Each structure stands twice: as C-alpha cells, then as structure tokens.
C-alpha cells in the first residue's frame, strides 16, 4: 500500500530535559557550570539535533505529508500501514520505536555522526530521502530485527529489540530460580541481561568490557550471535550456601527458552531496551519464559 503520511519521531535533548528540571536555560546553565560541567556541550548537542530535524522535515514536506510524535507518546500511538516511520536520534530511539512499529518500515537517521555510533542509523539528513523514496516506490532494501520476548505465566508479554533486564528495581539483590536445558539454580544477583544480536553491541558489550578489564582480553571471547540467537548474562552472581553460580551466561537458540521464577516478594520487574517505564512486575509467584519472538521490525537500509 502506498504510504500517505510520514511520522517523524524524536526524543527530548538533554538540554530540554535540564530546562524542564530547572525551569529556565539560565538556571540550568548555572547548575551545570557551578558543578564544573561544560554546559556548552549540552547546547551544541541540542542545536545539532534541531538543525538536522529541520533539514529532515523540510525535505520530507516536499514529498509527503508528515507530523511529529515525541518518543514519550510512542507506546500509545497507533501506526497505520499507510505510514512511513522516520526516527531521528540515537540508536536507542530506534529500539524504543521498533517494538511498536507493527512491521511498518523505519527510516532511521543519525543527526550527529560525531556523537552517535549509528549502528541502527543507516541514513543521514543528507541522504535519508533515498530511503523514503524507495519505500514509496516499493523498492527498498531492509534489515529484519528479531525481538526477544518475556512471557509471564499470566499471559503478559514484553518485547525487546536490544535487550531485556530481569531483576529488582533497587540496588538490593534479585532473588530467583533460573532453569536452562533442564538444569536449575537459585540465584542472588544484580539481575539478568538478555540481548538480541541487534542489541549485542550495547548493554551486553558493557558486561564483556568489564570482564575484559578485570581478566584481560586474552581470557575471554565475545559471543558471535546469529540473527536468531539470544544471549543472556547474569550480573554479579553471588555464591553462598543457598545460591549457585554455574548458569551465568550463554546462548538461547531458536526454539529454546530460559525460564526464570521470581523469589522476590516485591519490587521485582522486567523492562526492555533501557526504558524502565515499560515494564512487567515480576514478584513471587511469577514465572517468565525468555525466548526469541516470532515478531520483528523492519529497518530500511537502502
């Protein structure tokens, strides 16, 4: 179906968040600079994003009608098959949007190549119309991003493009039973990260970076994931008379699942893609199956 509307999705900049917190730009500047920070860095980042945003909106308006949706409203926004989704921001914004995209093509734009890695941002403000026109002409090349999913025993489900976190909403230890391939352990840890291949350069990589720093890079090898693999890592597992540490990481192949039973009377939760507001409660009596989802998102790459 020929697209009729483009939805441009952006997030608030750090400068906008500071102004919301301190009411004025001047007060925000005073706070940052009085603590020794570089306020101009926030200003430069903000201006670069909005220059890119205005360029994108101006070019887009010559070809297709469009409107802007802030990231905070994406979970409640209903995308239509007549839409093109335009994401402008950091890689994480693509992940935040993808799980609500309903298989609608996403054109992801890196507004600041000097600041953002752009692993999920194949376009720039200068060339993104190539992606838009290829969608209109039904000739686009795509990358399918497979989701991880957490499914609770009451039927609730949460998707993740990059990663899931299973743990507790505080700095105390998460307590749970973990089952993989028929083997079961009781854990006390800082929680579990489950990563997709798409997200493996993010949170999961930081766990390996920490291990490299402690043990040296010659002692470890970074996992090579396939598109249909998930990889889990237990953060800071504690070994005691009642808790074990043998099941601490590994691949979850397609068709397999990781089962986790909460032993936390309260504050247990599961969230996805770094957004703590997008979560499932995970308290005692709740079991979660972690597996590869049948659902996916479509990222335009050319």
Structural features, described:
The chain is an alpha+beta fold. Helices cover 24% and strands 34% of the residues. It contains six helices and 16 strands. It has helices at residues 14-22, 25-34, 39-61, 91-98, 128-136, 203-215, and strands at residues 5-10, 65-70, 83-88, 106-109, 142-152, 157-160, 163-168, 174-180, 183-189, 192-196, 230-234, 249-252, 258-262, 268-272, 275-281, 287-300. A six-stranded antiparallel beta sheet has the order 6-5-16-13-8-9, covered by helices on one side. Strands 12-11-10-7-14-15 form a six-stranded antiparallel beta sheet, with helices on one face. Strands 2-1-3-4 form a four-stranded parallel beta sheet, with helices on both faces. A hairpin with a 4-residue loop joins β5 (142-152) and β6. α1 crosses α2. The two termini are 19 Å apart.
Topology:
Blueprint: E1 5-10, H1 14-22, H2 25-34, H3 39-61, E2 65-70, E3 83-88, H4 91-98, E4 106-109, H5 128-136, E5 142-152, E6 157-160, E7 163-168, E8 174-180, E9 183-189, E10 192-196, H6 203-215, E11 230-234, E12 249-252, E13 258-262, E14 268-272, E15 275-281, E16 287-300
Parallel strand pairs: 1-2, 1-3, 3-4
Antiparallel strand pairs: 5-6, 5-16, 7-10, 7-14, 8-9, 8-13, 10-11, 11-12, 13-16, 14-15
């Amino acid at each position: 179906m020929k697209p009729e509307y483009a939805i441009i999705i952006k997030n608030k900049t750090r400068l906008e968040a500071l102004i919301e917190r301190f009411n004025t730009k001047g007060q925000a500047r005073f706070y940052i600079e009085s603590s020794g920070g570089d306020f101009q860095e926030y200003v430069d980042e903000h201006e670069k994003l909005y220059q890119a945003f205005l360029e994108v909106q101006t070019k887009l308006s010559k070809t297709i009608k469009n409107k802007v949706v802030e990231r905070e409203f994406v979970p409640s926004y209903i995308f239509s098959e007549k839409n093109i989704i335009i994401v402008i921001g950091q890689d994480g914004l693509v992940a935040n949007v993808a799980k609500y995209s309903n298989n609608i093509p996403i054109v992801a734009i890196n507004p600041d190549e000097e600041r953002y890695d752009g692993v999920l941002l194949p376009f720039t403000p200068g060339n993104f119309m190539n992606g838009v026109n290829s969608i209109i002409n039904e000739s686009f090349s795509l990358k399918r991003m497979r989701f991880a999913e957490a499914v609770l025993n009451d039927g609730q489900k949460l998707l993740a493009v990059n990663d899931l976190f299973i743990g507790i909403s505080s700095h105390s230890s998460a307590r749970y039973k973990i089952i993989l391939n028929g083997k079961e352990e009781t854990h006390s840890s800082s929680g579990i990260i489950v990563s997709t291949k798409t997200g493996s350069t993010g949170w999961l990589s930081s766990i390996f970076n920490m291990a490299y720093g402690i043990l040296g890079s010659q002692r470890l090898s970074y996992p090579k994931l396939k598109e249909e693999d998930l990889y889990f890592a237990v953060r800071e597992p504690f070994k005691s008379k009642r808790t074990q540490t043998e099941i601490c990481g590994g691949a979850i192949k397609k068709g397999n699942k990781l089962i986790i039973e909460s032993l936390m009377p309260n504050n247990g939760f599961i969230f996805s893609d770094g957004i703590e507001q997008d979560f499932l409660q995970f308290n005692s009596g709740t079991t979660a199956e972690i597996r590869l989802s049948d659902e996916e998102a479509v990222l335009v790459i050319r």
